[in-house]
Fold this protein.
Amino acid sequence: MNINYRFIILLLTLFPLSAMSADANSKNSFQIDVIASDLGVPWGMALLPDNTMLISQREGFLSQLHLESGELVTISGLPDIKVGGQGGLFDVALPRNYQDSGWVYFSYNKDVGGQGATTLARAKLENHTLINWQDLLITKSISKTKVHYGGRITFDNYDHVFLSVGERGVRPNAQDLTNHAGSILRLNLDGTVPADNPFIDNDQALSEIWSYGHRNPQGLFFNVQTQQLWEVEHGPRGGDEINLIKPGKNYGWPIISLGKEYNRDVPVGEGTQRKGMEQAVKDYIPSIATSSLIQYTGQTFKGWSGSLLISALTSKHLNQVFLNNENEATTEKRLFRGINGRIRNVIESPEGWLYLSTDDGRILRISPHNE
C-alpha cells in the first residue's frame, strides 16, 4: 500500500481537533476528536444514559457535556470544597444501579478545621442541580498538607463502593491502620461498613480499610467480569506501581519501594521486598506519573481486551500493559503521545471507545477510524 505522507501531514495541519492516528504496534487505527476544552483540570468523567458526560474539575466545578452537540452546562449544588495544591473536587462516578437509584458519587477535599480530608459523598442530579447531598465518609486523613489525596472511586457488582486515599505526604500514615490515609477503603453504597471487610473485628484498625501501605493511589478499577480490583499509585522518584488489590493486604509503602528520594540519590525505605508485603504487578522506573486506570473489556479495539490502560501525567501518554493468565505484566506500549498533554483520566464507553481528559482542560474521544 502506498502512503502519501504529505497528504497525512496536511490533514493533521488543517484539522487539529480531529485527527486519524495509527498505532504502529497493532492493527487498530483511531479517530481522535477533542469534544471539549478549557475545563481547568478535568479530574473525573462519568457517562450518563442520556448521552451526556459529567466532568468534575479539580478547581471545584462540575459540568455536564452533551456528547453530540458539544453543549456544556455548569451543574450547581456542590458543597464548599477546599481547593489548593493537589486538593479540590476529585472523582465523579455512577454506581451500577444508577438507573434505579439516581445516586451520583463524588470525592473531594473537605475543609475540617482549616485542614483537608478526602471525603466520599453522593447526590442526585435534577435539572442541572445536585440535590440531597450526603457526605458518606469524611476520612480520617486530615492534614494541613496539600498533597496525596487519592480520591478515585470504583464499584463492584455487589453494592460496594471503593475509595482510594493517599497518605497525605506523611509516610508513616500508610502503615497506620488507625487512620484512613494510604489505604483503599470499601463501603456499602450508603456509606455503612460491610460485615465482611478484613479488619471488621480488629479493634486496632479502622473497619473501612480494604488494603493499606499505599502512597498516592489515583487509579482504581474493579473488573466485574474477573472480580478483581486494580490500582495504580505514584512512586516518589521512580517506583510508580500497578497493584492487584486483595483484602487485608499490605502493599509496603514506605517500607519497601523502588523509588528514590526527591532531594538526594538514595532509595526510599528499607529495600524492595519484605515478608508480609505485596509486590507490584509492574513498577515504572523512571516514573510516568500514573493517574488513573481501566482494564479494557470491549472488543472494539482488536487485541486489547484484558489489557490495562493507565493515564500518564509527566510522560504524556496512555500506557498499555498486557497481562498473561497469571496476571503478570508482559508487554508495555505507550500510546497517543501526539495528544501532547498530561493525561489525567481514562474511561471506556459502552461502545468500547475511550474518553481521555488532560490537565490543560481537554476531553478527547478515541474511536475506531473507518478506513
User: Anything to note?
Assistant: Residues 1-25 have pLDDT under 50 and may be disordered. The CA atoms of residues 123 and 132 lie 5 Å apart.
